[in-house]
């Protein structure tokens, strides 16, 4: 039927997302519109979008809806009046381009994510079955979901899953991603180590596909230079729920014995937050250590690490069109995301975990007061949605009926997509991956920014994926308090109980534990010393001082 409120005559509900009708019609008409959409007639393509919308950030939910609003501006002038013109250009926009959106949450749980995906693929959630899938965030969840998608022949474009394993098209043939894979991030990390002449790093990683994949990737980079000895790993058990702090504390204690003051953290933020708490308890979030993190361990998402000198690696995710997205974001309100009719329309009320009960909280009007709530992944999410829209539009212009746009036909079209998104130029290689350069993001003093009092994240340098070259744009701030683009001496010196390989023809500057019976006070000493007669080392390996022999014992 039609709406005629406030003198507006809305056309029949023929578009898949009757936003305007929802805004002005009675709840009864809006419900009828939803039923038309759920029926998924032959003139509608159904696209699923999922991620940890209830466990990591509800800005993922807001970005999904922002994408849908932006796409529908092409057909609805009232949306242009309110939110501005479409951000992403649609060449030769086809009149039959109808796309309906379903949203889902994985809640950072593989079982929840798999149930959600199965419901989407089979239409078991009261909605039509999806023909394409945007998502997700956790590689450990994307892997089983894309295996399921392969069985249903549903192409999947991820915006946050970066495990190098997902580049294997023999294992994951229906998976692509707009976020670059960790194989490139590992190159950036190794480039950082080479540029700053870092002798060794202890790599603390979650024992799941993301952490393990990135650890293996940087081992491969180091080994290719015959310097695999510079990377030492400490695996930390993965806990999708009920995080065990005793595990974190035990692994932190082990890291302190590894001989390097430089620690790289590779885990999703839901694992990184409690693990960084254990680091802080052990006195390692301090000037005595240098902590660095993967793109998931940003200072803004792991507040304990928001200390001057913290360094983390982030792919370039904001292209020339991002400022247009910022304008759209600031025009959104919490009602656009949390409103009852909106939640019903996008299937949000059927989430396995409700917005109210999720650990991510809910967006408010203040979320949209500026762009600060938008993190690394949101631009990739927005562009993943447009990847499908661009592919569908291209096929329609080639004469392919909308009913035939699915399966292999759609997958092939996605591989041929190339467009300017808010994250930059979007295109895929034959592994379904996208190359991107990386920033060396550095927490620096700045009284005018928002991360916390007196700090701001600065893009201190870049690693070019195209050339493999590191370029520094400003001096690096280190957790030691030093400023400059030379590695501080304090980070090269060894802990007490260790000696440094600093002599000979090819010194590695690595730190090694003292053998039993010898001691070291640390620093840059090139050997450990034996104790004098009548004295003994205070512990077996890694001793730091000589103590008197117990009564009835002696040493010579």
Structure description:
The N terminus is likely disordered. It contains 16 helices and 21 strands. Helix 5 packs parallel to helix 6, helix 7 packs across helix 8 and helix 9 packs across helix 10. The termini are far apart. The strands form 6 sheets. The chain has an 8-stranded mixed β-sheet, sandwiched between helices. It is of the alpha/beta class. Strand 6, helix 8 and strand 7 form a beta-alpha-beta unit. Helix content is 31%, strand content 17%.
What is this structure, in a nutshell?
It is built from 16 helices and 21 strands.
Structural key phrases:
556 residues; alpha/beta; five-stranded parallel sheet; 16 helices; elongated
Strand tally is: 21
Shape: elongated
Q: What amount of the residues lies in strands? A: 15-25%
* Fraction of residues in helix: 25-40%
In the sheet with the most strands, the strands line up as 7-6-8-9-10-13-14-15
Biggest sheet details: 8 strands, mixed
Overall mean pLDDT score?
A: 88
The radius of gyration over CA amounts to 27 Å
Distance between the ends: 100 Å
Task: Provide the structure class.
Answer: alpha/beta
| Tally of individual helices | 16
Unreliable stretches, pLDDT < 50, 5 or more residues? 1-39
């Amino acid at each position: 039927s039609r709406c005629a409120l406030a003198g507006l005559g809305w056309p029949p509900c023929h578009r898949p997302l009757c936003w305007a009708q929802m805004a002005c019609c009675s709840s009864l008409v809006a419900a009828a519109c939803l039923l038309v959409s759920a029926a998924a007639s032959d003139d509608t393509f159904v696209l699923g979008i999922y991620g940890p919308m209830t466990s990591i950030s509800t800005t993922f939910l807001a970005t999904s809806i922002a994408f849908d609003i932006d796409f529908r501006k092409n057909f609805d002038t009232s949306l242009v009046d309110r939110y501005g013109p479409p951000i992403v250009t649609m060449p030769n926009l086809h009149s039959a381009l109808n796309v309906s959106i379903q949203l889902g949450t994985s809640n950072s749980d593989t079982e929840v994510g798999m149930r959600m995906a199965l419901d989407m693929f089979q239409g078991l959630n009261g909605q039509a079955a999806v023909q394409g899938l945007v998502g997700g965030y956790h590689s450990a969840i994307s892997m089983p979901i894309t295996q399921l998608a392969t069985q249903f022949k549903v192409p999947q474009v991820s915006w946050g899953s970066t495990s190098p394993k997902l580049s294997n098209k023999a294992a994951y043939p229906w998976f692509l991603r707009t976020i670059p894979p960790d194989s490139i991030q590992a190159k950036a990390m190794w480039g950082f180590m080479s540029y700053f002449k870092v002798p060794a790093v202890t790599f603390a990683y979650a024992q799941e596909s993301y952490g393990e994949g990135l650890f293996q990737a940087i081992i491969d980079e180091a080994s290719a230079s015959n310097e695999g000895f510079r990377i030492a790993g400490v695996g930390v058990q993965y806990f999708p729920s009920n995080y065990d702090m005793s595990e974190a504390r035990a692994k932190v204690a082990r890291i302190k014995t590894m001989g390097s003051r430089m620690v790289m953290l590779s885990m999703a933020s839901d694992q990184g937050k409690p693990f960084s708490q254990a680091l802080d308890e052990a006195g390692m979030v301090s000037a005595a250590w240098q902590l660095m993190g993967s793109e998931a361990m940003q200072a803004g998402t792991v507040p304990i690490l928001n200390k001057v000198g913290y360094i983390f690696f982030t792919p370039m995710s904001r292209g020339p069109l991002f400022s247009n997205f910022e304008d759209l974001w600031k025009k959104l309100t919490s009602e656009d995301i949390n409103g009852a009719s909106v939640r019903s329309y996008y299937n949000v009320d059927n989430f396995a975990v409700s917005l109210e009960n999720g650990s991510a909280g809910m967006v408010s009007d203040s979320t949209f007061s500026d762009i600060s709530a938008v993190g690394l992944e949101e631009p990739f999410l927005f562009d993943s949605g447009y990847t499908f829209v661009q592919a569908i539009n291209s096929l329609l212009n080639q004469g392919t009926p909308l009913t035939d746009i699915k399966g292999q036909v759609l997958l092939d079209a996605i591989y041929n997509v190339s467009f300017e998104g808010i994250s930059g130029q979007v295109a895929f290689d034959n592994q379904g991956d996208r190359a991107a350069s990386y920033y060396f993001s550095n927490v620096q003093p700045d009284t005018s920014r928002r991360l916390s009092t007196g700090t701001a994240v600065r893009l201190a340098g870049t690693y070019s994926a195209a050339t493999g070259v590191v370029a520094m744009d400003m001096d690096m701030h280190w957790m030691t308090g030093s400023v400059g683009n030379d590695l501080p001496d304090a980070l090269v010196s060894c802990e007490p109980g260790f000696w440094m390989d600093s002599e000979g023809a090819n010194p590695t500057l690595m730190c090694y534990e003292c053998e039993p019976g010898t001691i070291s006070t640390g620093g840059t000493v090139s050997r450990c010393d034996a104790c004098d007669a009548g004295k003994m080392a205070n512990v077996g390996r890694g001793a730091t001082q000589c103590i008197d022999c117990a009564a009835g014992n002696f040493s010579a």
